[in-house]
Amino acid sequence: YAADTTLSAGYSHEFRLPRGVIRAAADTHFESSFWGDDFHTPGTRQSSYTKTNASITYSYQGWSVGIWAKNMENAAVIAATASGGLPGPATAFLEDPRTFGARFTVEF
Q1: Rounded distance, CA 1 to CA 17, Å?
Q2: What pLDDT does residue 77 have?
Q3: For the chain, what is the radius of gyration of the CA atoms?
Q4: DSSP class of residue 39?
Q5: Calpha distance 5→68 (Å, rounded)
Q6: Rounded CA gap, 28 and 50, in Å?
Q7: Angstrom distance (rounded) from CA 75 to CA 77
Q8: Where do the DSSP E strands lie in 19-62?
Q9: Which residues contact 86 (CB under 8 A, 6 or more apart)?
């Protein structure tokens, strides 16, 4: 689980309006390929990938509404692996695929 190259970047900005605030944020993460175990078992190699997340939220007087998206590239990323013995096969558990949604909150 040790990629040779890892890069992360993010940006957020708040737009103040006469009635409310818009908050926008985005972040991205890149990792080069790596093996999920010490033995390089087939099925445990993670290809290089990029994952990007974004959200935008409007808030005003104790309530907010927003939309968000995670893993916008729908990258298949290994979260954990388990070898069934050498020379394999192995089982890989993946992180969440592309997800998106909306939210509405009220403060009282």
Answers
A1: 45
A2: 94
A3: 19
A4: T
A5: 27
A6: 7
A7: 6
A8: 20-31, 34-35, 45-46, 49-60
A9: 39, 41
